[in-house]
Amino acid sequence: MMAARVKMALALGAALIVTACEQRPAGEPVIRTELGDPVPSDDPIDIVPLPQNAQDGAASADAIDDPAAQIASACAPATFEDIALTHCIADPAAHRITTALAPVSGDDFGTLKGWAAGRDASAIAFAMNAGMYGDDLRPLGYFVQESERLSELARGDGDGNFYLKPNGVFFGTGGAWQILDTGTFLRTIGTRPQFGTQSGPMLVINGELHPEFQDNGPSRAIRNGVGIDADGRAHFVISQSPISFGQFARFFKDELGTPNALYLDGNVSSLWDPATGRMDAGRVGPLLVVERVNEQ
After folding, report:
1. Are 46 and 34 in contact (CB under 8 A)?
2. Which whole number is the average pLDDT over 54-63?
3. Residue 109, CA distances (Å) to 67, 102, 103, 131, 284 in order
4. Mean pLDDT over each residue of the chain, to the nearest integer
């Protein structure tokens, strides 16, 4: 019996290594086929229950034991057109937004877990992947961290969702946060912000949906994005199951009332919410970190 258990453990370990090696180290390409239904788990091993973000190759998650669980979460479940979402709010009166990069080496390279290791979780309201990246996990476009520009504004054409024009930039200094399409950002912003990340496509542009979106097109994926409302709050949303671009954009426009909203990424979309212990395990590169500055 003991020998059988040892063989089973060795086999499981080998399977996990193969799975880890097969993870894609790049952001989401243009999705031209509809993802299938979530894959049910037949694993007989005892595992920690996952948030509903483990979908057909999308980000999986682990729960973590964290003292930050004593603090109220800035995130809450939502439902739109029968799609389950997680909706997180950053308020300038209570939060500071910064950008960061996931580690490019170590056991947990390219993950939120790797970035979070050793940090004071009680100071973090939540963190989310911040846009698309290349094989080196570096941002594809404009990226500013602590007022230092690490990557230039991308204005060219290419393949993938990032280049579905107009794309845009989420940026800010202090408690003033904005989302602008890339052309408007280039023409009107002359001072480097404290943080900034470029991604694409725009979801909502001056109160209108992106012109290339269908109402409910065939492209479905786990997706995340950010929008700014009239009060200057940033709304971060991540879907719990595959959602179309049209549905996702309508949630920002019709439910959240954000005149401008930006798509961040899909399939690798990941969230760390220390207050609930949610730690998604998708491969990420650039990050948006929402820190607590005051008690709400």
Report:
1. no
2. 38
3. 24, 7, 5, 17, 9
4. 82
Q: Please choose, from the candidates 296, 265, 271, 270, the residue with its C-alpha nearest in 3D space to the C-alpha of residue 283.
A: 270
**Cα 112–chain centre separation:** 10
Q: From the centroid of its chain, how far is CA 211? A: 23
Residues 198, 182: contact at Cβ < 8 Å?
yes
| pLDDT tens-digit series, residues 175-224 | 999 999 999 999 999 999 999 999 999 999 999 999 999 999 999 999 99
Domain boundaries in the chain?
50-292
The SS3 call for residue 151 is: strand
Cα Dmax for the chain: 71
The arithmetic mean of pLDDT across residues 10-28, rounded, is 39
Helix, strand, or coil (residue 243): strand
Q: What is the pTM of this model?
A: 0.79
Q: How far apart, in whole angstroms, are the C-alpha atoms of residue 237 and residue 269?
A: 10
| Spatial contact of 126 and 88, defined as CB atoms under 8 Å apart | yes
Match 């479940």 to its residue by tokens. 77
Provide the token pair at 207.
């109160």
